[in-house]
Amino acid sequence: MTGLQSPWDIAFTPDGVMLFTEKCRGLSVRLADGKTVRLFGTSGSAVVAPDLFCQGQSGVHGVAVDPDFAKGRRDIYVFMASNLRTPATNRVVRLTLSADATRVSMRTDIIEDIAYKHAGNGAGGAGAHSGGRIRFGPDGHLYVTTGDNHNATLPQDLNRLGGKVLRVNRDGAAVVGNNTPAGGDPRIFTYGHRNVQGITFRPAGQPNAGQPFTAEHGPNHSDEVTALVAGGNAGWDPQNRPGLRCPDDYCGYAGTPTTMPMTDTQRFPKAMPPSWVYNGSGRGMDSALFLDGNQWKGWNGRLLVSLMRGQRIAVLQLDARGMAVGDATADLPSTRTRTLVQGPGGNLYTANDDGEIWQVVPN
Ligand SMILES: [Ca+2]
């Protein structure tokens, strides 16, 4: 597909209908005959969400399909910025897709209180660092990635939903077993993140199958892939760094891998260690996907990670613990890739900042 406006994420129903989001337009569907319908979003959509707004990096982000869709639970889930509350928040909204996939109804907001950056500060503009990827894991639960909003205290604050990975049921309730530290919001699965926009799950047949791996933007250094454990601290804490110059108390852009680490093992000795740290040029670590299927041959089971500024996709080989032991670059044209998804049949689908969605077939 071409001519899209900032496509952000893609999801497929089991019968092959493709759903996609555009940041400032909303959710659309591409039907089997190639026709597209704007289902939900801003003006021009079949169902207009008057509370949805687009600002800076934010708007409509992730989309996911209910794991029981094929059993008749025709629900889809969308991450979006909303001004229903003052100040505004990010939300996860559940919708029901009609049998012909041309209409949505039954909006239910399952998470209403994900942190949103309502005003610019010394670190950047409003709407920054919302996270926004949503994926069902093989455990049947919905994982939601959020961002630090350029807010110094947010990542380590266990009562606010920014700089976190959440794990909830389809109604938004906390999953038993999240292992959130005592006193924290029980929807929090991991915390101490900066801006997570990639999450994928280790495929069946690999060690620790089902374990979630995140891809996370670093602060001009140290983009990270991390293997998550329930209740884990990812070690990002951009506050109280007396040696650094910190506009509006946010030290996130002020230091080096030593003075402002993405994983601060001095403050948090038990922090989850990164599987792969990328310090080269052209970072912008965004989406992540374990490729799964024999048709991918040498890439079967490898972890793809998009580096947006680098306009390339890294192909990582992991060891049994989940640590990267090799990386290559996918032989694909250069572009800023926003999402990586496998469709029915196992082909790879990507969306990019040139307004395109690609289908990539192993050859
Ligand atoms: Ca980290």
Report what the structure shows.
A five-stranded mixed β-sheet has the order 1-2-3-4-5, with no helix packed on it. A five-stranded mixed β-sheet has the order 10-11-12-13-17, with no helix packed on it. With 363 residues, it is mainly β. 0% of the residues lie in helices and 37% in strands. The chain is built from no helices and 25 strands. It has strands at 7-12, 18-22, 26-30, 36-41, 47-48, 60-65, 75-82, 89-97, 104-114, 134-136, 142-145, 165-168, 188-191, 196-201, 212-216, 223-227, 232-233, 274-278, 285-290, 303-307, 312-318, 324-329, 337-342, 348-352, 356-360. Bound molecules: calcium ion. Calcium ion binds at residues 224, 226, 234-236, 262-263, 274.
Question: What key phrases describe this protein's structure?
Answer:
Neuraminidase; 5-stranded mixed beta sheet; 37% strand; globular; 363 residues; mainly beta
Radius of gyration (Å)? 19 Å
- Give the terminus-to-terminus CA distance: 21 Å
In sequence order, what are the helices and strands, one letter per element?
A: EEEEEEEEEEEEEEEEEEEEEEEEE
> Structural class from helices and strands?
mainly beta
The CATH topology annotation reads as: Neuraminidase
Low-confidence stretches: none
Largest sheet: 5 strands, mixed
| Unique ligands | calcium ion
Percent of residues in helices: under 10%
